[in-house]
Automatic annotation (TrEMBL):
Taxonomic lineage: Bacteria, Pseudomonadati, Pseudomonadota, Alphaproteobacteria, Hyphomicrobiales
Protein name: GGDEF domain-containing protein
PROSITE patterns in the cross-refs: GGDEF
PANTHER family: DIGUANYLATE CYCLASE DGCT-RELATED, SLL0267 PROTEIN
Database matches in NCBIfam families: GGDEF
Organism whose genome encodes this protein: Pleomorphomonas diazotrophica
Gene3D superfamilies in the record: 3.30.70.270
TM regions (residue ranges): 86-112, 325-348
Length: 543
C-alpha cells in the first residue's frame, strides 16, 4: 500500500490479511500480518537497467503513479501479473508479427496456387479447342482434297461413275459416313462403315445434317464446312466440300455437287489428341441440352448454337501441385512456429522471474518489504516532476524511532527486527492509495503524502505518532518505543527531492532536540544533523 509507483507484497505464510497493490489497475497480490516479513512485489522502477529491453516491462510505463488498496484473501501473484505484462508487451507483438508473416506466406501461396490453377485451366481449354480444331481441319482438308480434283469432277459432274468413286475415293478406318449429293441434295453415292450401300443421307442422319448443307451452300464452292453431329448418340464430325474442277474453285456452291465425310470421334482419336495436346483422359460427353461447366471441360457449340456436347478431361492443376509440394513445408514451419512459441514462453517466464527477483532485492528493504531509498527517490521525483505543475504537492514525513537502540540492547536484535516489522505494518495502515512509505535504513522511515491540506497532514502526523508509540508484543513481552517526526512540504519548501528530505530531516532533528515524541514542521532556521545522522543525499547548498 505504497505510492502510485506501485508496491505490492507477498507474504511468507498464506493465512494473513493481504494488501493488494496495482500497477495501472492490474492487481498483484500482497500480504502482511502476524509480524512476518512481507516480501515486495517483484516489479521495480528506477534501478540500473539490468536488461534494457525488459526494464520497461518491469516498471509502470504510464503516468508514474502507483496505487494501493486493501483486500482480504488470496489474489493474483506478482509473477502472474508480470508474466502477463511481458506476454502482452514483448511476446505477443513479436509472435504476432511472426504469425502475420506466416499467415501472409500461406495466403500468398494459396493465391499463387489459385492463380496457377486458373492459368492452367485457361491453357488447357485453349489446348482442347485447338485439338478439336486440328481434328476438324484435318477432316476438312481431306474432304477438300477429294472434292477439288479434276478426276473427281469428271466422274461425278461430267459422267457419274460409282465404280470409280468406290475404287479411288477409299475409306479410312475412322470413316463412319461418305456421301455424294447432287445439286438437289439427293444421294448419288453412299458408304457407311466402309461399305458401299444404297441409302439416302437424310434417311440415316438427323436434320442437323441437312441444316449444315443449307448453310454451306450459301458460301463459295471451294469452302468447306465442319460440324459435330450426334448420330444415334455417337459423335460424328462431318466435313462438306463442293465437287469442282480446279479451275472452278471460285464458283458459288449453291448449285453444285457435295462431298460429305463423317468421321467417328472415338476413343482412339481422342487418345491421339490427348497425347498431342497433353489432355489426360480426353473424352467426348454428349450434352443433351445441359450447360454443365467445369475446369476440365470444353463445350462444343454448333454453328446454330444448339449443340451442347463437350470435350472433358482430367485437368492438370499446377496450383494444386504447388500446394502439394509446398504444403508439407508450410505445415512444418507452422509446427515449428508453435514449438518455438512454447519454448520462448517458457524461457521468457523464467527470465522474467529472475529479473523480478533481482529488481525486488535492489528496490525493497529485505526485512520490512517496504521500498528502499532508491525507489523512494524515484517515486518522489515522479510525484514532484515539473511537468505536473500545480498538482506537485506533497508532505514528506521523516520518522526516527525513539528508544529503538534500548530495545536492541535489552531484548536483542531479533526483537528489534520484530519491532521494525511491526512499525512497517502500522505505517501501511495509514497509507491511502496514493501514499508511499519507505525504510531508509536502521530505524528511519519516510512517508510521502500527495496533498497540500495542512489540516490533513497534521492529523495524519499525530495519528502516526500515536500508533507507533503503542506497545509491540514479542515472545510474550511488551516492547515500547516512540517516534519523532519531521515534516517538509512541497511546493512550500521546494520541489527538489533531496532538499525536501534534508528539510524534513532538519525538522526531525528539531523534534528530537525538543524532547522526542514530537512532530515538527520545517522552518528556515532549522538545520539537519548532517554529521551524526546518515542523510539521504549530500546537503544542497542553501538548504
Amino acid at each position: 500500500m505504497e505510492s502510485r509507483l506501485g508496491e505490492a507484497r507477498t507474504k511468507v505464510k498464506p493465512k494473513a490479511i493481504a494488501a493488494r497493490c496495482r500497477i495501472g489497475g492490474v492487481p498483484p497480490e500482497a500480504a502482511e500480518g502476524n509480524g512476518e516479513i512481507a516480501h515486495p512485489h517483484k516489479i521495480a522502477f528506477g534501478i540500473p537497467r539490468l536488461i534494457p529491453d525488459l526494464h520497461g516491462l518491469l516498471v509502470d510505463g504510464g503516468s508514474g503513479y502507483w496505487s494501493c488498496d486493501r483486500i482480504s484473501g488470496a489474489q493474483m501473484t506478482p509473477t502472474a501479473s508480470l508474466d502477463r505484462r511481458f506476454f502482452l508487451r514483448v511476446i505477443l507483438p513479436m509472435f504476432g508479427l511472426i504469425a502475420l508473416l506466416l499467415a501472409g506466406a500461406i495466403v500468398g501461396v494459396l493465391m499463387l496456387s489459385s492463380k496457377q490453377n486458373h492459368l492452367s485451366i485457361e491453357f488447357q481449354q485453349r489446348a482442347a479447342k485447338n485439338a478439336f480444331q486440328h481434328f476438324a481441319e484435318e477432316l476438312a482438308n481431306q474432304a477438300a482434297g477429294m472434292a477439288g480434283r479434276d478426276e473427281t469432277a469428271a466422274h461425278v459432274v461430267d459422267a457419274f461413275d460409282a465404280g470409280w468413286l468406290a475404287s479411288h475415293l477409299t475409306a479410312d478406318q475412322d470413316e463412319a459416313f461418305f456421301f455424294i449429293l447432287d445439286p438437289d441434295d439427293r444421294t448419288l453415292f453412299s458408304r457407311t462403315g466402309g461399305r458401299v450401300v444404297s441409302t439416302e443421307a437424310r434417311g440415316v442422319l438427323p436434320p442437323a445434317f441437312s441444316q449444315l448443307i443449307s448453310r454451306w451452300r450459301a458460301g463459295r464452292l471451294a469452302d468447306t464446312a465442319t460440324q459435330l453431329i450426334a448420330v444415334d448418340g455417337a459423335p460424328i464430325l462431318f466435313a462438306l466440300a463442293g465437287i469442282h474442277a480446279v479451275d472452278d474453285r471460285d464458283k458459288s456452291a449453291d448449285g453444285g455437287h457435295v462431298l460429305a465425310i463423317g468421321r467417328r470421334v472415338d476413343r482412339a482419336s481422342l487418345e491421339d489428341l490427348a497425347e498431342t495436346f497433353m489432355l489426360p483422359n480426353l473424352s467426348y460427353e454428349p450434352g443433351f441440352g445441359q450447360t454443365t461447366e467445369g475446369p476440365g471441360r470444353l463445350r462444343l457449340m454448333s454453328q446454330n448454337g444448339t449443340m451442347g456436347d463437350s470435350l472433358v478431361w482430367d485437368p492438370i492443376l499446377l496450383g494444386d501441385q504447388i500446394l502439394k509440394a509446398v504444403g508439407p513445408g508450410l505445415v512444418l514451419v507452422f509446427a515449428g512456429y508453435l514449438v518455438l512459441t512454447a519454448v520462448v514462453l517458457v524461457f521468457a517466464r523464467r527470465a522474467v522471474r529472475l529479473i523480478s527477483v533481482s529488481e525486488e532485492k535492489a528496490l525493497h528493504d529485505p526485512l520490512t518489504g517496504l521500498p528502499n531509498r532508491l525507489l523512494l527517490l524515484d517515486r518522489m521525483k515522479r510525484l514532484l516532476e515539473p511537468k505536473r505543475g500545480d498538482d506537485a504537492a506533497a508532505a514528506v514525513f521523516y520518522l526516527d524511532l525513539d528508544g529503538f537502540k534500548e530495545v536492541n540492547d535489552s531484548a536483542g536484535h531479533a526483537a528489534g527486527d520484530a519491532v521494525l516489522i511491526g512499525v512497517a505494518r502500522r505505517l501501511r495502515e495509514f497509507c491511502r492509495a496514493e501514499d508511499t512509505v519507505a525504510r531508509l535504513g536502521g530505524d528511519e522511515f519516510v512517508m510521502v503524502i500527495p496533498t497540500d491540506d495542512r489540516q490533513l497532514i497534521e492529523a495524519r502526523a499525530e495519528a502516526v505518532l500515536a500508533a507507533l508509540s503503542s506497545p509491540y508484543q514479542y515472545n510474550g513481552h511488551s516492547l515500547v518505543i516512540g517516534v519523532s517526526i519531521g515534516v517538509a512540504l512541497a511546493p512550500e519548501h521546494g520541489l527538489d527531492v533531496a532538499a525536501l528530505l534534508h528539510k524534513a530531516d532538519a525538522a526531525l532533528y528539531a523534534a528530537k532536540q525538543g524532547g522526542k515524541g514530537l512532530v515538527r514542521f520545517y522552518r528556515k532556521n532549522m538545520r539537519s544533523e548532517t554529521v551524526s545522522r546518515n542523510p539521504v543525499a549530500p546537503q544542497p547548498a542553501g538548504a
